[in-house]
């Protein structure tokens, strides 16, 4: 049958729904044949034939469309659509080819007559196009890559725990939206992500100019409150020394710093915290909430003490949930990077023969920042994450479906530190780091109802994804330090301080190591020597393992020419070789 078949006749143009209603009206003696025919727009003769079931080859409301008929019944196709939707909700969606192969297996194993390709063992392209036309609620989409950690971490118990504690925090101090801030970092590269362009049809490769193969990363720290007021950003350049020329064209008030890797560190975050406090003017009498992710640089002891002294309550989002729960990630950074890429492409066109360096980043960022940092984007970010106005039920059920694949109960090994909101005045930072205990049962529809029409159900042909765990470990164990706690409370501050203290060096011990010593003129003997770890140390020229870390029984050989040491096993020579020369000297 052609993919875009056009009927040449208007026969059987009535709908099956109208025919069903007309049959019910006649059988219930509500209408006669003629009135039902005119009321529902169906032919009278056809209505009589279907109502009296004279056509034995068709159902009461189905149509006879000549020799062509669909491979699967509408009920089976409905089950197939539900199966595809369920797999997509678990982040295991099927491609076009996988759907064609599934349709072939479904027909083969259930004994359904079909015209699919037996050699390729899959349904044809015509069937797939017709299947998509008959089922408008599914279509071909390009998925967004989601890591397994994000899929498992964004679960209902963890999200509900966060909003429960955050809601109590809002009630305890009665915060207004202009005192609720969100801060986050993002990287900007000197090499833009190319956008689609118009080019010659049929050309295999279409290029666009970039500054280099790999760009230099610059980290920007942005911050905004729930009413759309932005704090001047901070820019971290990947270099040792900072030059004021780097931020000449940056947004007004930008704080520029240099760091060799270009990433945020604990020291730089403390500097940004002081920059943040200089604009919000917070104090212990007029506190602010700062919502951040759980990056290690945000948990430095000096930063926490400074925040506590200046009335800054730092609330950490649950791990691997920022893609849905952080306002800046949801509504700001995507348009910012889009405008930034456009600015780079425009700059390269206006400056042919030149490349974008760190000295142009500030000006390009300023152009993109001015377009993306709008009140509407900021307010939409807080609203769509349920942070302001507070809405714990902002996320629909299907967003929790990926976590159901590995959903197992949680058990605490130890009782966690007690966290109460009566201590908010003393404890300024609340962290939500790992999934919580007592999970709430999901109300979403993870299993769709199966039908009895298939001898071999879809669940057997295409198994539903479920996590598998090692026997004896049926329940996930969570350590006490990984539950929700107040970082700046007294016990936790003491714990952080104890961890920051340098550890005592390990006790030195004497080991019996066999070394083979030789001189160029005479043959040496193998003699065991007691050597301390810090007295004589060298590394194997093959594996770079240190002599001080050798295990008892390891044999070492020294080259007669370069006097370098090597494991006898690494050199692949007998342990009692009298004259050893390494491969380098050979």
From TrEMBL:
Record Gene3D superfamilies: Homeodomain-like, Ribonuclease H-like superfamily/Ribonuclease H, Zinc/RING finger domain, C3HC4 (zinc finger)
Disordered, as annotated region: 480-510
This protein's record includes keyword Metal-binding: yes
Gene Ontology MF annotations: DNA binding; zinc ion binding
Alphabetized UniProt keyword annotations: DNA-binding, Metal-binding, Nucleus, Zinc, Zinc-finger
Coiled coil (residue ranges): none
GO cellular component: nucleus
Residues of the DNA-binding region: 33-53
Pfam families from the UniProt entry: DDE_1, HTH_psq, HTH_Tnp_Tc5
Domain HTH psq-type: 1-57
Localization annotation: Nucleus
Keyword set includes DNA-binding: yes
Biased composition (Polar residues): 481-492
Main location: nucleus
Protein name: HTH CENPB-type domain-containing protein
Origin species: Spodoptera exigua (Beet armyworm)
